Each structure stands twice: as C-alpha cells, then as structure tokens.
Amino acid sequence: MLQTSRSGALKARCPRLLLETALGNSVDVPTAAGSDGLIPVSIRWREGVIDAVDPVPEAEGLVLPRLVEPHAHLDKAFSWKDHPNPDGTFAAALAANYREHQTRTLQQVQARGERALQLAWRHGLRAIRSHIDSVGPGAACSWEALTALRQQWLDRLELQLVALVPVEHWSTRDGEQLAATVAAAGGALGGFIQPPCRGRQERRGLRRLLELANQLGCPVDLHIDEASSHPAAGMRQLLRVMESMEVSVPVTCSHASSLALLRDGPLRHLSDRMARQQLQVVALPLTNGWLLGRQGDNTPLRRPLAPIRQLQTAGLRVAVGGDNVQDPWFPGGQLDPLALMAMSLPLAQLAPWDHHGLKPFTTDAAQLMGLAWDGVLRIGAPADLIHLQQGGWPELLAIPSARGVLAGGEWVQGP
Ligand SMILES: [Zn+2]
Predict the structure, then answer these.
(1) Staple partner for 333: which of 37, 168, 325, 394, CB 3.0–4.6 Å?
(2) Where are the domains of the chain?
C-alpha cells in the first residue's frame, strides 16, 4: 500500500456491483468474479479522487466505498441510559421518548450528535439521514444543535435532517410554519402515520404534507406502517392521496413493516401501485425486530419487516437503515455500517454476494438519499473507501474489529 498526500493505491477484492473499471462493463468481470461476487482490483487515487481502477490476477482483503446511513435519530441517540425501555414494547418506547423530549436540552443534543458523528466517521459512514422530533419542547433545541453539527461536519460527512411530526400536524398553521423553517434550513419533511389509519384526518395531513413539499421542493420521508397489525393501512392512505395529485419530490416510506403481513396477491398489487408512484422504501430490521410482534414472554411467531425482495421485484428502490442507537426504541446500535450489514442480512435473508442483497446497503441507499455519488468505484469517484486487509464476506459478517477508512484520499482510520 502506497500513500502520499491524498494520493495512494491499494489492491483488494471489490464486489462487482460496486466496480466500474477503465474498460467499463466490457471487461470480462463475470468470469473474474468468484462465487462470492468479488473481483481482485488495483485502485489508485490522487488529490482525493480515484484515477485508476484495474482488474488484477489476485488480491487479498475486501474494499467497499464509504457507506451511508439512510435512517437515524441523532436527536435521541444514547438516551437509553436515562430513559430505558425494559419492556421492549412500541408503546413503552413512545412513552419514554415523550418523557425524554420534555426535558431535552441543546447541550444534550449537541453531545449526542457529536458522539454519534464521531462513531459514524470512524466506522466509515459518509452520509446520514436523521429524523428529528419536531413538535414539543425539545424540537427547537434539537434543530439548533443538529443544523450546527451538520455545518461543522460538512467536509467529513453529509448530514440530512428530516422533521418528524404526526402527519396531521402538516394541515395546521404551526405545521405550515414548520415546513417553511425546515425548507429554509435545507431539511426534508417527514411524519408518522400509525394504525388504525382510518381515514380523512390522516389523508388531509398527507395531502398537505405533499403540497408543502411540492411548493418548497423538499424531499419527503415518512414513518409508515411500523406496526404488527392493520397490514399496510398507512400505505393505502398514502397511495390514495398520491394517486389523486401530482407529486414532484422524492417520497420515501421508512419501515413499511406491516406490509409483510399481507398475502402474496394483495402485496403484489400494492407493490405495483407503490412502484407507479416511484416510492422508495427504507427497511429497518433491527428496531422492527426488537419492538414489533411482541407477545409477552413468548417468542414472536410473526416478524413484521418490509418485504424487501418483493418490493425490489416490483421495481422499487429499497435501502436498509439502522434506525435507533441506544435509545428507548432500541438499546443497541453504534452507527457502524458493517455491523448493520452483519445483523440485518440474516434477519432479511439477503446475501451480500447477490446484487439485490448488497444494493440496499450501498448504491440504492446512496441514490435514495439523493447523494451526488452512488458509491460505485470508478475513475473520477471520491477516494472514499472502507478496507479490510484480510478475508472477505465471512470476516465482514463477523463484524471486523479493525478496518481502514479512507476519506477524500486520506486514511482517517487504519489502514
Ligand atoms: Zn425512525
């Protein structure tokens, strides 16, 4: 491995999905890749930009682009210690979150955000989308702290901020004002819609949210159908609204867990409607796995999780996110994209050597977030890499304790 100022080179194996060599797709990569989908390559960079990617006969280790976290909650990260949820139920998480929000201070959110970003940076994340609880006493200080951190971290990591409120809030005067404030801060509009989602009030909120997003040019990212009952009740309301209006901004549905409770036929029909509206989905296996389907002391027999493969087959872009980090909703998590892969792949029965298994953690997650770079290693791409010096997928799935992280052509961790 060579290194001068923001220049260097390495040899490692890279997943075929994440590789575009100088010969583009005409290179005989299918035969170069083993059954693990990895291709030995030499990657060289100068002044922080990749300037050569070439297949080589053999190489050790694994190289990936710096990765992204499409769904987090930095405003409440690490609040489990003072606001635990030992019952592990959705209702108890919401209640603990509510109590925490009443006492939240600017200093607390600054400290949580800084700690989270330091971890993310060292673990190899280049972008994070964080939702922010945006009604109530903790809202203003959370936005103040996280917009300041977004600015401070701009050169290292892109932080996207999304306003999280009950969807009905957008049809109020306060909601309209919040939308203007969020748009001025360069944020996105979100909201949660919970079962039973009976109708008119939620649809009015959703319509107003989409109208405001259209007017202000803000992306939308909803918490929708994070539930073990009322399959797809929120999604049906959203589709009803979207099918009756023009929407010109990207709309992401985070969770979409209860869709897993639909039978095959209705799921196919719903997925086709979602695809026609160009909806994007963020599946969140860890928080869903922890909270949903609890049956007292019994092991749950139903595990609601967005049906990732069925949605992909219908043509939707699906990403996988980590969601909560040591807060009342989930006691674990450490903003580590490799740990997220290691823990989520078995829950979703996805394999990283298949494109549809790897895309939700890499290219599709980057595109869903609207990032300038899709994460494919090619000439002209940023020299932003995660490098494991030894091994391949088994070592990654064992959650490596050491890794190299290259950002803008400089090693910030390792190699
Ligand atoms: Zn969330």
Answers:
(1) 325
(2) 2-66+373-413, 67-350
Give buried/exposed letters for 100-114 (b at 16+ CB in 10 A, else e). bbeebeeebbbebbe
CA of 380 to the centre of ligand 1 (A): 34
Cα 221 to ligand 1 centre (Å): 10
Beta bridge pairs of residue 191? 222
Q: Tell whether the model's pLDDT for residue 26 goes beyond 70.
A: no
pLDDT at residue 199, as a whole number: 82
Q: Are 330 and 323 in contact (CB under 8 A)?
A: yes
CA–centroid distance, 328 to ligand 1, in Å, is 12
Strand-pair partners of 386: 64, 405
CATH number, span 67-350: 3.20.20.140
Q: Name the pLDDT band for 1 (thresholds 50, 70, 90).
A: low
* 335/261 Cα distance (integer angstroms): 29
Q: Assign 139 to helix, strand or coil.
A: helix
How far is the C-alpha of 57 from the C-alpha of 40, rounded, in Å?
7
Q: Provide mean pLDDT across the span 8-18.
A: 96
Q: What is the mean pLDDT of residues 368-383?
A: 97
- Alpha-carbon span 336 to 119, nearest angstrom: 7
105 contact partners, CB below 8 Å, separation of at least 6: 141
Each residue's pLDDT tens digit, 278-318: 999 999 999 999 999 998 889 999 999 999 999 999 999 99
Centre of ligand 1 to C-alpha 223, Å, is: 6
Name the DSSP class of 142.
H
CA 282 to ligand 1 center in whole angstroms: 10
Q: Ligand 1 mean position to 396 CA, how many Å?
A: 25
pLDDT tens, position by position, 140-177: 999 999 999 999 999 999 999 999 999 999 999 999 99
Q: Give CA separation, 21 vs 25, 323, 409, in Å.
A: 7, 34, 19
Closest CA to 346 of 387, 295, 396: 396
Residue 2 CA to ligand 1 centre (angstroms): 41
| CATH (residue range 2-66+373-413) | 2.30.40.10
Count of Cβ atoms closer than 10 Å to residue 38 Cβ? 23
Residue 56 half-sphere exposure, CB side, CA atoms within 13 Å? 15
